Amino acid sequence: MNSPITAFATAFVILQFVKIVVPALLTSFRITRNRRRHREPFEPKATVIVPCKGSEPGLEDNIRAFLNQEYRDYSLLFVTESGSDAAYAIIKRIISQHSRPARMIVAGLAKECGQKAHNLCAAVQSVEQDAEVLVFADSDAHPRSSWLAELCAPLSDPAVGATTGFRWYIPIASNFWSILLSSWNAQGLVMLHERSLFAWGGSMAVRTEDFRRLGIERIWRTALSDDLSLSKAIRGSGLKITFVPQCLVATYADLNMRQVLEFTTRQISITRFYRRDMWWQVVAAHSLYTAVFWGGLAVAVSEIPSATFDGRLIIPLAAIMTLSACHLWSRLALAIHCLPEDYSANLIRTRLAFVSTGPLVTLVYLYNIVVSCMTRRITWRGIVYEMVSPSEIKVIRPSNPAE
User: Fold this and answer.
1) 22 and 162 co-located in one domain
2) pTM, whole model, 2 decimals?
3) For site-directed labelling of 368, which of 100, 115, 125, 213 has its Cα 20 to 30 A away?
């Protein structure tokens, strides 16, 4: 009775192997084999802008990592919403103890755009005139010492408009939901390559000239998403966005179910407004996976009591799980190679739990997709936003500066 379902599941296994697993394995093999990519030296004067909010886990270590980059000439701008923000005093103290040129900026409350975009606009206005490259990073990210040099190097190619790294979540207490979030996030690596679909705002760089010419600051003044709006402008100009795997950055995660679902849904909701093409790719991939794997599993379980049960459907379902694990394993190998060595032990300790979460991750994505179709409101860092269009948002509830 389930022969057509078995055939369809088998076809999906082949598709998954050819389109997802093989490219992922080849990419990870190529990067880990060539431990140091040989690039022509390119270290233009750079300004690193880091928006900050609150005292996050690992904040002090992260700030010191940004201050200790192996790069010839760069300065840093740290920006907070208010001087009473918990991060302000911490960062002020650290930069006062360091010789690297760094400043603190207070941006004030956002009224017509996302608070992060507002903070970035305030910082951009303070960039030195001779800065050739603008680099944007998140305060909860921990980069390796070569991060800045690796991120800027591809910009020597005029065809490259922006470079990007990506985050990798490190579960603090190895709890289930943090591991699931790490796996969920790792799926985004599928869209990152030599011609990436987007740049991630926690680790991205752009030439100052292109930033000004494309009017990114003007775009940000009415935008919620800094990175997706920048990505759209870069790609719209005919330039490409290049993923630099060595610029993966570590971010601690210690979240419960509500926090994971809120975060993941926010990401998908923002994607739906700014990059509908990417959103549809997510819809297609995870809807198909859910239908084949979970639908096939339901059929197989329902037929177990039947006298006609032959178990053939179990084979492609097991293959789907195995290929999902191989895909996640390749991403994990990439992270272990590219992240600072301090995080390797944590990643290795949770590797079995991580690679087994593939089928559950797709259910989270399905939940994200459904909710993203039902609401235009999201909560981000204590602020509620209503997304009217990619160029218009409403700030429903201003954040508490003391938060």
Assistant:
1) no
2) 0.89
3) 115
